[in-house]
Amino acid sequence: MLEQRYRWKNKHLRTHVSVLDGKTSPTILLKNALYLNQTFKKWLRANIWIYEDRIVYVGENLPTQLENCEVIDCTNEIIVPGYIEPHAHPFQLYNPLTLAAYASQFGTTTLINDNMALILHLEKGEAFTLLKDLRSIPTTMYWWSRFDSQTEILNEEEIFSHSNVKSWLEHDAVLQGGELTGWPKLLDGDDMMLHWIQEAKRMRKQIEGHFPGASEKTLAKMMLLGAECDHEAMTGEEVYNRLMQGYMVSLRHSSIRPDLPNILDDMKRLGIDAYDRLMFNTDGASSTFYEQGVTDAMIRIAIEKGVPAIDAYNMATVNIARYYNIDHLHGNIATGRVANINFLSSIENPTPVSVLAKGKWVKRDGQRVTGAYPPISWDEYGLKPMELDWELTLDDMQFSMPFGIKMENAVITKPYSISIDASADELPMNHDECFFTLIDRNGKWRINTLLKGFATTLSALASSYSSTGDIILIGKNKQDMVHAFNRMRELGGGIVMVEENQVVCELPLSLHGIMSNLPIEELISQEKRLLIELGERGYTFSDPIYSLAFFSATHLPYIRITPRGMYDVMNKTVLFPSIMR
Hints:
By secondary structure, this protein is α/β, with parallel strands linked by helices. It contains 17 helices and 29 strands. The strands form 5 sheets. Strands 1, 2, 3, 4, 5, 14, 15, 16 and 17 form a 9-stranded mixed beta sheet that branches. Strands 18, 19, 20, 21, 22, 23, 24, 25 and 29 form a 9-stranded mixed beta sheet that branches. A hairpin with a 5-residue loop joins strand 20 (433-439) and strand 21. Helix 6 (162-170) packs parallel to helix 8 and helix 10 (236-244) packs across helix 11. The chain is globular, with a radius of gyration of 25 Å. The two termini are 40 Å apart. The relative contact order is 0.12. The model has no long low-confidence stretch (mean pLDDT 97).
């Protein structure tokens, strides 16, 4: 549990009241601001008093005490609440701190984060210490509690034990259970998952679904079992079906599914013009996708598609806060709320010129405020460079599987019959089949097959980034694959491409082999280089980072390569077990 049970202690609350009594000066005064008032759904003018991290008054009055108070004339400013990202995956090569720092420059100052990487790779004490320490940054960080691993790992019962999941659910910073990628198990009678849902509901916490392509009947069943929100609607009709079943619908615009423009067109065609049960999310987009913005980009798309501006802003702020029962703290500009405030140049431009997060300037007049997000010591939480004490040899490069994995798109994979000779040390460059290995990061097991559709002339790629944290090897040349692995090991984790025994591209991931410690702006450059190099070698899809992440993800059809072996998702069976080394 968090060390401080309440956001503000009694002495803080007394000080806040003393500001209104004129005994204490506000720290910031925003005079004559045109701001979004979501109670009246109007743009109103008011004076906004801020004391440290809290709005202590909004109205016509001005404080009598202004000693050491920063006074800002907001006559020409337009002010909206800080944006909320309700579905962040803060481990897509970036890390929670770098994502928070980057998103804040676009006005997103509250993140509700997936805990998957933390529960899989850290001890509970380390993870909870990290959550506690992240309270000190300007961005407000909330979390989910996962109920399953989203793949087939060897020790799932231990990691997702009842006591572990319950501890996460009880944590003050956790707002919801889910997302429910393992919902088919729930429908098949998994009473432990149902118990966790019941516990979350008892604690007044929400349940996030993950229901791509779900029928109306399935949506109704999942609502009866406790799901309350879903982010997998890809068409207006799917939005309509979810709204009809009582769901909060989270509209997605992400690197794998940039659906928002088409969804809004569909909604207009269907006559859906009530927006209070809708919110925005970017579903853990890769860093290059965030070049165009974060939540602000979605607000802009909505306004351009004819959504009333106030509704567009509400879908990024108060709608989310109300759903998660945090609107007493976030999502609107009113007395008592956390001072997360965006300053806009116009109502039509949601990218802020200046940003306050917890009453601190993180962006001012278009410029990042230096030092707002100081670095943290990741090794204190167990997030150190990988240390592999085992060797990869050509004996590990034996490929005799009768069928392989074929990529239908960046994340969907199907089985296919292997017809080529995979016994040689090198495959020809005139087809799109590559050697494909998933190997335990501790060197205990491996699974080898062929991968079709990833690349044509890729000699070797090694990646410590995967959904399980195990190591992926892809390529045409076994010797280069060993070389790429060795270079990845020297880096302490990362993604490395090798050709003719030379490194052609590398992206270091110094935090446990799954995350970079670089600012996202620098990570974007590295990720672009990787995409260019892969594209030149035949990768034709939009997002190789998600391809690497989802090779093991059993919440997607049809066949996956997992720590347990080759896995048939639809029949829930291991087709070929992994081989012990």
